[in-house]
């Protein structure tokens, strides 16, 4: 008799498409607030990094958000006094275009709408940093081959989910709607903070930076190493813990 050998299921890994090596990598960021503005800052660093490593084009980024910069945004978001009253998406695009000589685009519209359709159609990766469940549901209903990185948080906790939008790919790479199915029934809350102090009472100063830094490690792995096995990340500022979970194992 021979002893039975337990075979560990192979780890599921998402590999970046080959054209990411030879073409501009189209990334759409939906939401330019606490997490979204941090995302754009990371993408500017990534663009410079991969160009320095020999990528012929780097990143082509489109930012979608119809909000304007208000005084409560000046602590937890990547905006300053000079940005007050300007559209967040346009301010961020202009800032990094001037700094790095790029042609990123800021679309001051509420997703989804006709004005955002072309950018979505050409996206290789959609990064959502939105406050309302309906926006996530709209992304999940897109007919798109793009991968989807979603970032969300409350006062001191956050979560990041990387998955697919396409129904077939979604079976292997579940997205945030699979991880949190209750999103599809939650109502939108469009209330806003009235002051910096109120903003800080609702969310810690560094929660957005912590969540974004964790989530953007997935994007960096794709850009630098061409693959990632990270599916779901959890960040807890109260305990200082960060947890990572892989995609469901292959059969």
Automatic annotation (TrEMBL):
<dbReference type="InterPro" id="IPR035985">
    <property type="entry name" value="Ubiquitin-activating_enz"/>
</dbReference>
<dbReference type="InterPro" id="IPR022500">
    <property type="entry name" value="PRTRC_ThiF"/>
</dbReference>
<feature type="domain" description="THIF-type NAD/FAD binding fold">
    <location>
        <begin position="26"/>
        <end position="141"/>
    </location>
</feature>
<protein>
    <submittedName>
        <fullName>PRTRC system ThiF family protein</fullName>
    </submittedName>
</protein>
<dbReference type="GO" id="GO:0008641">
    <property type="term" value="F:ubiquitin-like modifier activating enzyme activity"/>
</dbReference>
<dbReference type="InterPro" id="IPR000594">
    <property type="entry name" value="ThiF_NAD_FAD-bd"/>
</dbReference>
<dbReference type="Pfam" id="PF00899">
    <property type="entry name" value="ThiF"/>
</dbReference>
């Amino acid at each position: 008799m021979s002893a039975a050998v337990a075979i560990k299921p192979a780890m599921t890994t998402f590999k970046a498409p080959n054209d990411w090596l030879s073409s501009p990598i189209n990334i759409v960021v939906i939401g330019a607030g606490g997490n979204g503005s941090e995302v754009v800052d990371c993408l500017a660093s990534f663009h410079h990094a991969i160009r320095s490593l020999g990528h012929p084009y780097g990143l082509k980024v489109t930012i979608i958000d119809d909000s304007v910069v208000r005084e409560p945004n000046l602590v937890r978001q990547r905006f300053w006094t000079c940005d007050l009253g300007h559209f967040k998406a346009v301010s961020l695009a202009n800032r990094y275009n001037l700094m790095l000589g790029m042609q990123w685009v800021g679309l001051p519209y509420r997703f989804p709408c006709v004005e955002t359709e072309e950018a979505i159609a050409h996206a290789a990766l959609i990064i959502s940093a939105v406050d309302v469940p309906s926006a996530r549901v709209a992304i999940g209903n897109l007919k798109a081959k793009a991968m989807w990185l979603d970032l969300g948080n409350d006062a001191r906790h956050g979560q990041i989910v990387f998955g697919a939008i396409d129904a077939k790919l979604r079976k292997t790479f579940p997205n945030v709607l699979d991880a949190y199915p209750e999103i599809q029934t939650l109502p939108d809350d469009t209330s806003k903070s009235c002051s910096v102090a109120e903003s800080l009472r609702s969310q810690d100063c560094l929660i957005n930076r912590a969540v974004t830094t964790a989530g953007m490690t997935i994007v960096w792995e794709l850009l630098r190493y061409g693959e990632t096995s990270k599916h779901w990340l959890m960040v807890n500022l109260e305990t200082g813990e960060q947890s990572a979970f892989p995609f469901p194992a292959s059969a």
